[in-house]
Amino acid sequence: MKSKNHDKEMHDVYAKIYKDFYIFSEEALNYTRRIILKNLTESNISLENIKNLNVLNIGPAREARVFSELGAKNVFHFDISKTAVNALTKLKESDPIFSNIHSNLVDACAPGALKTEKKIDYVYLAGVLHHLHDPCQAIKNILACISPESKLFFRIYKSGSFGFYITDFIRKFITYDTQSEVHKTFSEKFEINDYSKQLEADLHDNFFVPILNLFDPKEIDKFFQILDFKLIHSDDYVSYDHSSIDHSSQGTTLIYETKNFELSKLSRINEFPSHLDQIEDVTYSEEFILNTNILMTRFLKNINLYRKKEIINLSIDLYKESQLYRKKEYQSSESNHLRIQKFLKNKYF
Ligand SMILES: C[S@@+](CC[C@H](N)C(=O)[O-])C[C@H]1O[C@@H](n2cnc3c(N)ncnc32)[C@H](O)[C@@H]1O
Fold first, then answer.
1. Is residue 128 in contact with ligand 1, taking CB distance under 6 Å?
2. 236 C-alpha vs ligand 1 centroid, how far in Å?
3. Which of 158, 217, 294, 297 has the greatest CB tally within 10 Å of its CB?
4. What are the b/e assignments for 95-123, b being 16+ CB within 10 Å?
C-alpha cells in the first residue's frame, strides 16, 4: 500500500532535481537522444521501424519528446507528476509536430489506470519500475495495452552494488522531513562545483524518493517467462560486487519480446519480485562485509541515542564514500567496507 503522501513526494522529489528535463534543455535532450538510440539498437529496432511503433512511456517528459521526434506513430505517456504531464501538454500546444504525444496524469499502479487508443508495440520504462509502489499492478496495466507482438524495455536498479548497499542502509533512518537540514549540512561540507551538484541531486533522489526497490534481475526474468516473454538483451549479473567500478554497475537493462501475447495470460501472475534488503536478503561470504552489517544493525538498534545532526552528518559522509566511482577512483570491496566501518565506529559515536 502506498503511503498517504506518496504522490506528492514522488512529484516533489523529481520537480526539485529534474528542472532541466521539464524545460527540455538541449543538454537533457541530447543525453536522452543518445541513450534512446542505444536502447533501440539493443532492442533490435531500426530507425526506419520507429515510424510503425506505438510507444508507451512513463517518465519526466524528455523521453516521450525524443520518441516523438524520432518519428514514433504515437507516444502514450503516463506519469504521476503533473509537472511532467504539463511540460508535454505545453509542448504539444506550442508545436503541432508533437501532436502524436498523448500525455496523462495517472498513478500507473491504480487498477485499470492506463488506457491507450492504439495497441502498444514498444514499452519504454527507464528508471521507473523500481520506483513503483505496486509494480505487479502496473505491469498488468501495461500489458493490457500491448499488441500480441511487442517489446518491453526496462532499465532497473539492481541489488548488489556498493552504492545501493549504502543507500538502502541510509533509507532505513533518513526521513522525508529532514530534507532542508540534509541540504544545509551538505552545503556546509562541500564547495559548490559540478561534482558536488551532481552528488547532491543524486543524494536527494536516493534519500527521499518514496519507493526505491533493488531487484534481482533473475527473479524479474522468471516473472516475464511465466508470461511467455523472451529475454532478448541483458547484462551480466552477479549477486553482489562491492568494489567501486562504474556507474552502470548499479543498474541493468532487460529487454523482452513476445510473439503471441493474449490478455488471459495475466491470470498467471499475482506477485512481482520483492525488494532485496541489502543487509538481510543478500548472502555475503566476506567477513569484512559481515562486520559492516553488524555495525549497521547495531547503529539502527541504538538510533535513538544519537542527535539528529549526527545522524544527518553520518548519512552524508557514508553516501559520499559510496560514490567514489564517480571520480573514477577504483576502491576494492574491502577498502570500501573498512572506510564505512571507521565512520560507524569512531566518527560520532
Ligand atoms: C527516475 S524517473 C525516470 C527518469 C527517466 N529515465 C529519464 O531519465 O528521463 C521516474 C519517473 O517515474 C514516475 N513515477 C513513479 N511512480 C509512478 C507511478 N506510480 N505512476 C506513474 N508514474 C510514476 C516519476 O514521476 C518519474 O517521472
1. yes
2. 25
3. 158
4. eeebebbbbebbbbbeeebbebeeebbbb
